[in-house]
Write a structure and sequence with these properties.
The chain has 5 helices and 5 strands, in the order E-E-H-H-E-H-E-H-H-E. By secondary structure, it is of the alpha/beta class. Helices cover 35% and strands 20% of the residues. It has a 5-stranded mixed sheet with strand order 4-1-2-3-5. This is TetR family transcriptional regulator.
Length: 160
């Protein structure tokens, strides 16, 4: 998978097992525009606690509202190995991100705090990525459908 070299990334860490890291990439030179569009799409809208359990009409509205947000991609990896702890899982997920998306430049927490729209978008995407793989959604209800490129996977058991 090829990503532009200057990609600003927002990270969402799922701290409950199975652990997971979701990364939203935005063109660094379009970060302000992306935040404005994400905030416009998500401000004042009810956000579900679960994507699979959300009303299909709500999913369709959120997907349609998020389509104009400029992104370079989405990456999600989960770690549900039985012998891992949160610290090890986070380390392995960050290593996998660096290996698979070398142009990713995670934004510092203080900067991310000033991007509530994009933060909400990456959290919603994380909800979609945590659904069971057998769950089928129509394209107009699948938030991943708004991204040109995305990767969803896991840390294999033999990963050190």
């Amino acid at each position: 998978m090829t990503h532009p070299p200057r990609t600003a990334c927002l990270l969402d860490w799922h701290a409950d097992a199975p652990y997971g890291l979701t990364v939203l990439g935005v063109p660094a030179d379009r970060l302000t525009e992306a935040e404005e569009k994400a905030a416009s799409a998500l401000a004042g809208r009810p956000l579900p606690a679960s994507w699979q359990g959300a009303d299909p009409a709500l999913r369709r509205r959120l997907v349609a509202a998020c389509r104009p947000v400029p992104t370079t991609g989405l990456w999600h990896v989960s770690d549900d190995r039985p012998v891992t702890d949160e610290r090890l899982a986070r380390r392995d997920c960050l290593r996998a991100l660096a290996a698979e998306w070398p142009g990713a430049e995670p934004l510092p927490a203080d900067r991310t705090a000033r991007l509530p729209g994009l933060t909400a978008l990456v959290r919603l995407a994380a909800l979609v990525c945590r659904m069971p793989p057998e769950a089928e959604l129509d394209p107009d209800e699948d938030l991943l459908d708004v991204f040109d490129t995305y990767t969803v996977g896991g840390i294999p058991d033999d990963r050190v």
